[in-house]
Amino acid sequence: MASSSSQRLPEWARKGSPLAPGARALRVLLREKGLNTVCEEARCPNLGECFSRGTATFMLLGDRCTRRCGYCAVATARPQPPDAGEPDRVAEAAARLGLRHVVLTAVARDDLGDGGASHFAAAVRAVRRRLPGARVEVLVPDFRGERPALASVLAARPDVFNHNIETVPRLFPRVRPQGGYRRSLEMLAMARTLRPAQAIKSGLMVGLGETDDEIGAVLGDLRAAGVDIVTIGQYLRPTREHRPVERYVSPEGFGALDRLARALGFPTVYSGVFVRSSFNAEEVFATIPAAPPPH
């Protein structure tokens, strides 16, 4: 698989995407509604592109996470109590933006009994009321593997259920010390059992020290768990405080990963240097073979 062992950022891993003038209106709307986005909090390299197109991934339950993952720029701190009005404000913002595919994610909230699942469900329902023709995609934490929490999110009938595996089992203790590889896999499999027709999505990063064989094994595990949409992107270190990049996979290497995932039976694959699980989510959904209508 084509890749670069040099830690110097290659030209093909540099993304110049300044904010277009029209992006200011989106930022004003977000501040007006008191909303957070993972685009901003996680320092996503695609922020300029997405904001300039008038789209964003809403981050529920505040901007303070109860976990400290080695790759993530979201702040770790004691969170504020859940804001009961947030789901309606998210729905209002999505309506103002005219979104046809609304992506909802959240910080991990291990301080809450259900991990924030009921808040996710409330946000899905709020968007449904305000934008009945839109699709809703949720990107959830692991809810500590609690089946009732997962069931409550699925009962809200999201069009896409996403939980990212992120990395290979060997690296979990260093990269996601408060998570668990098996726990995440079991949650994805549980989602398939609880709602068999559900579109289920997961994603992983490369460049954290994994091997090609380990990537292949993770893809096999995800497919066996019932995942039908997989995203694969390059890990880019958000700050010097985060884990270093061990390798940069070339565009040709991501093409090889795409072919590997499809050979393993994934009907929908999105693989590339700047791919993130929520990036171009609407376009990715449209490529699902015989994609179902909204909810």
Write up this protein:
- By secondary structure, the protein is α/β, with parallel strands linked by helices.
- The chain has one domain (3-286): Alpha-Beta Barrel (TIM Barrel), CATH 3.20.20.70.
- Helix content is 36%, strand content 16%.
- The chain has eleven helices and twelve strands.
- The protein has helices spanning 23-33, 38-41, 47-52, 86-97, 117-130, 147-155, 172-175, 181-194, 212-224, 251-263, 281-286; strands at 3-4, 36-37, 58-60, 64-65, 75-76, 101-106, 135-139, 160-162, 199-206, 229-234, 248-249, 268-272.
- The protein has an eight-stranded mixed sheet. A two-stranded antiparallel sheet has the order 1-11. Strands 4-5 form a two-stranded parallel ribbon.
- Helix 5 (117-130) links the parallel strand 6 (101-106) and strand 7 (135-139).
Instruction: Assign the structural class, choosing from mainly alpha, mainly beta, alpha/beta, alpha+beta, or little secondary structure.
Output: alpha/beta
Q: Give the CATH superfamily.
A: Aldolase class I
Taking pLDDT < 50 over at least 5 consecutive residues as the criterion, the unreliable ranges are 2-6
Mass-distribution shape: globular
Topology, number of strands:
12
Can you name the CATH architecture? Answer: Alpha-Beta Barrel
Secondary-structure element series: EHEHHEEEHEHEHEHHEHEEHEH
CATH class group:
Alpha Beta
Distance between the termini: 39 Å
The side-by-side strand order for the widest beta sheet comes to: 2-3-6-7-8-9-10-12
CATH topology: TIM Barrel
For the CA atoms, what is the radius of gyration?
Answer: 18 Å
Helix content: 25-40%
**Beta fraction:** 15-25%
Tally of helical runs: 11
